[in-house]
Amino acid sequence: MPRRSAVRLSDRWIKAQEIPADRTVIVYDCDLPGFGVRITATGAYAFILNYVIDRRERRLTIGRFPAWSTTAAREEARALRRKVDLGVDPLEDEKERTADALAARIAPTIADLYVRYDAEHLPRKARRSADDDRSMWRCYILPELGGRKVIELSHAEVDQLHAKIGRTKPVRANRVIEILKKALNLAIRWGWRTDNPASGVSRNREEKRERYLSPKEIMQLTTALASHPQRASADAIMFLLLTGARRSEALTATWDQFNLVPPLDSETPDCD
Description:
Elements: E1 3-7, H1 11-15, E2 25-29, E3 35-39, E4 45-53, E5 56-65, H2 70-85, H3 90-106, H4 110-120, H5 127-145, H6 155-166, H7 170-189, H8 215-227, H9 231-243, H10 247-252
Parallel strand pairs: 1-2
Antiparallel strand pairs: 2-3, 3-4, 4-5
């Protein structure tokens, strides 16, 4: 590629140049080695930097003129040369940044995480439990975090989601974080990130609930059991109701554990 003698490059000098008829030329700056401007036969101007690293001569395009002024391009060239002096190849550095940017653009989102969670994990759960998980994803997680990259999700964002739900539904907020934590554990296994931002969330206090049947409900239950066609099941439930035994005790009980003979009335001794 033809080169002209080095000059002190400036915006005025570049604007005054004639377009080469049938070739591309490079004019180098006399003050900064390797810095120059490339002029094509189509009238395109671009600032470039030539440098040598690891015994290889490289050429990097800084930017087009006039989008880049000569002063700005020269300062960028100086910064690039400082990298070269430190052993960094600006072209390879740019490739790495481009690769990182591309990886960030195509990285899976929380919405992508839900799709895979739904396809691979939820089929292992009971239908009612899986439907409840899907409801929490649709109502709480996806509206708030669906567009976030899995790799970028922070502890603070998870805490904010938990706090927002917890203002009105503290127990539900705990359940939401539980399924998000499980999904993010799967994301770690799938190589989508290395830590779990849903770990360590301070759970809302949950009061233990005890529920007892009212007399009316007991009557309704016994009436239903008396007419239920599945007699074995109905009798087992009635047995639990009358004895207060645990379900496991009732289901594993054997006949030798029952006294089926009613006790005889004992005679009352005469009193003096």
